Amino acid sequence: MYFSIIFPDMKFFFRLFYKICSAYVLLVWALSISSSIHAQNSSVHPKVIVMAEANGIHRPFVDSAIIVLKKLAIQNNFTIDYIENAEKINEQFLSQYRLFIQLDYPPYGWSDTAKSAFEKYIKEGRGGWVGFHHATLLGEFDGYSIWPWFSSFMGGIRWKNYIAGFASAKVNIEKADHPVMKGLPASFVIGKEEWYTYDKTPRPNVQVLASVDESTYKPETSIKMGDHPVVWVNPNMKARNVYIFMGHHGRLFDDPNYRLLFTNAVMWAIEK
Fold first, then answer.
1. Could you give the CA distance from residue 73 to residue 257 in angstroms, rounded to a whole number?
2. Which of 7, 135, 184, 252 has the smallest C-beta neighbourhood within 10 Å, fewest atoms?
3. Domain presence at residue 24
4. In the chain, how many domains are there?
5. pTM, two decimal places
6. pLDDT tens-digit profile of 111-141?
7. Alpha carbon 96 to chain centroid, angstroms
């Protein structure tokens, strides 16, 4: 009798306890599902940041590249944001992006904050990187000094000269089994490019994927560097990264081999 007075209905308390526990389990499950869906969406729909030259002689290449990138984004479920300078770049900004594309933007004119954030992004593998053409304009330009870390990232090189009158040339694939080279022939001709030369070959410090055969320059020129890599990756960095020298004018995208090289590079670098 005494027990029943204190606990008039034990079944009620058990039912209440069961409901509270069930509600808690459902809440935890719902939060877990929500977190999982968010993670999946972030993985399935990664974001890409493209830093492109705003104006100048490389604008036609940038405009053509943007068209190709838009198609790739639709086909492969990623989104793209564009910037035309390094003002927004910091660690928080870069944390949004799976891939950083340096579309003919030079390695100078960046703030110390932007440099530090980019270096960390690459060294720690926080995202991938694809650089084109002007990204190796390393030296003293427009009143800016060379960015030593970026020079090291590109194999320890410094810009030396270029073929101002342009030339066609044959590019030879050196690492056919690399994903960036997938589907490309052993060699292909680039019809028109200004072919930078550097103070030394980056080969000792990078993995060369392709090089230009300087004996095939048309018209012939004395501006040569001997061993002349034009596509390479730096395996010393955690980030997937690839530099592609060719990228001066928009007509490059009329060449199916170049378009495939561009596509392969983007799709490989965006993976983790």
1. 20
2. 7
3. no
4. 1
5. 0.84
6. 999 999 999 999 999 999 999 999 999 999 9
7. 13
